[in-house]
Design brief:
- The chain has 456 residues and is an all-alpha fold.
- The protein has two domains: 13-208, Up-down Bundle (Growth Hormone, Chain: A); 251-455, Up-down Bundle (Growth Hormone, Chain: A).
- 79% of the residues lie in helices and 2% in strands.
- It has helices at 13-16, 22-56, 60-81, 85-88, 90-108, 114-141, 148-177, 180-200, 205-211, 215-225, 258-291, 296-323, 326-347, 352-380, 386-411, 418-455; strands at 8-11, 234-237.
- It has a two-stranded parallel ribbon.
- Helix 2 (22-56) packs antiparallel against helix 6 (114-141), helix 11 packs antiparallel against helix 12 and helix 12 packs antiparallel against helix 13.
- The radius of gyration is 23 Å and the shape is globular.
Length: 456
């Protein structure tokens, strides 16, 4: 048969209808490595700050400015830098931001005053915010639809592991070699990832087809995914969610088109509330545990195990989102989080192991929910604006990350028992559950409208 129509190969169906081979697994692994380094480079400042503060005689206001510099850089990276990946290519974005991040992490080790360190952390934050959406987008694009949430959550675990390893390495290096050593290690590790991403990370197939560039390279990638293919096919892209007149718009503008507007706004609210809940928990839980008379060891365990719970959640919620309705799965996770936080307050009146177990399940729902909603955003947005969608959701979510700890600190009465504190913290999880359930209904109506339009 030589009919030209039989030689047309349509994406994303091509990837969705095939098993995930080594080429795709390697792509996901590299994205996971990038996420790990991002987590490591993000969290190291938390362990450096006390030593820098003592050495330079900094007060709490100066340390707060140091933390804010990183957060502000992250927000700019998410909102202003990440969307350009949908134009210049996700591979270029990752290579450039990983290189830039490595340089400024290394420069931070040579800082001689707080202003120099703030500038280095600010620019580092921009790079960190620019790379994450592209890593998520590439991993999701090279994953079959039936595994997409699982893969995105799996690589996001790399980000959490980076947090954990940053703490372990800092505890080993800083007391012996000084605070600059952690920046040197982080910078060297990140710099080592540059040739890996440059030589082994493929670019977005969809982006190259859409721009009509490097079609020979696209064919080579598709043949590596399916070695049985011969070279006599035409790769094309199904773009049901974008009109011809929209192709020249900035990707960010696509987030506000009528079919996505309500979903975009809902995701922003969910990201903000979930991140606010997560950072409020991480900031205040050690203090609450200490006030209940637990020793330092229990304070560290009780706080750290929430991160473990979030990592475990990724390997349970991801496959569930792939096999079932992802919106209903996440809505149920948030609903479970509501009940877990209610119970958590009472666990302080029981044996220490009960408190630790409750802390694990709170982390499972709150930290796990934060990872899961990132995966959901990669599912919600079409590939042509996925990096912009994920980047802006993460960027807007930073508002909640900043506000959450402040709100709890402002309104929490020092005399309140844990039952009152965590009962109040439980209700945002109920709000999140309702919001995601409603978002699922919005998506169902959008899909029904698209099917009806095509039938007509």
């Amino acid at each position: 048969m030589s009919d030209t129509s039989e030689k047309i190969l349509i994406l994303p169906d091509f990837i969705d209808n095939r098993t995930m081979g080594w080429f795709q697994i390697r792509t996901a692994l590299i994205c996971g490595i990038v996420m790990f380094l991002d987590g490591f480079d993000t969290q190291m400042i938390a362990y450096v700050a006390p030593f820098v503060g003592r050495e330079w005689g900094l007060d709490n206001e100066a340390l707060g400015s140091l933390f804010s510099a990183s957060l502000l850089g992250l927000m700019i990276g998410y909102l202003a830098v990440a969307p350009f990946a949908d134009r210049i290519g996700h591979k270029r974005m990752i290579v450039a931001t990983v290189l830039g991040t490595s340089i400024f992490v290394l420069l931070a080790s040579f800082a001689t005053n707080v202003n120099e360190l703030m500038i280095a952390r600010f620019i580092t934050g921009i790079g960190l915010g620019g790379v994450i959406p592209s890593a998520i987008t590439l991993a999701s694009e090279y994953s079959p639809k039936r595994l997409r949430a699982t893969i995105v959550l799996a690589i996001f675990v790399g980000y959490s592991l980076g947090f954990v390893v940053a703490g372990l390495v800092s505890g080993w290096l800083i007391p012996t070699y000084g605070w600059a050593s952690i920046f040197l290690i982080g910078g060297v590790m990140t710099l080592a990832a540059v040739p890996i991403t440059f030589f082994f990370l493929p670019d977005s197939i969809a982006l190259q087809i859409r721009k009509g560039k490097n079609i020979r390279g696209v064919k080579n990638i598709l043949c590596r995914i399916d070695p049985t293919l011969t070279d006599d096919f035409i790769p094309t892209l199904e773009m049901p969610n974008i009109d011809a007149g929209e192709k020249k718009q900035m990707p960010v503008m696509g987030l506000f088109k009528p079919s996505l507007l309500v979903g975009t706004l809902l995701l922003w609210v969910v990201f903000s509330v979930n991140l606010g809940e997560f950072y409020a928990l991480q900031s205040w839980l050690p203090i609450i545990i200490e006030k209940q008379g637990f020793v330092m060891d229990m304070m560290v365990k009780g706080t750290s195990i929430t991160t473990v719970g979030g990592i475990v959640a990724a390997f349970i919620i991801g496959p569930s989102m792939d096999r079932l309705n992802p919106y209903n799965v996440l809505a149920m996770l948030y609903l479970l989080g509501f009940f877990c936080l209610l119970i958590f307050g009472y666990s302080f009146q029981s044996a220490p192991w009960v408190m630790l177990l409750s802390s694990f399940f709170v982390g499972f729902c709150v930290s796990g929910g934060q990872k899961s909603v990132v995966a959901l955003s990669a599912i919600f947005y079409p590939h042509e604006i996925r990096a912009a969608g994920v980047g802006w959701a993460l960027g807007i979510g930073r508002i909640g990350a900043i506000a959450g700890p402040l709100i709890v600190g402002t309104y929490m009465d020092p005399s309140w028992p844990p039952t009152t504190i965590f009962s109040l913290m439980a209700f945002p999880m109920l709000f999140l559950s309702c919001g995601i359930f409603f978002l699922g209904k919005v998506v169902d109506r959008r899909n029904a409208a698209y099917v009806s339009k095509n039938i007509q």
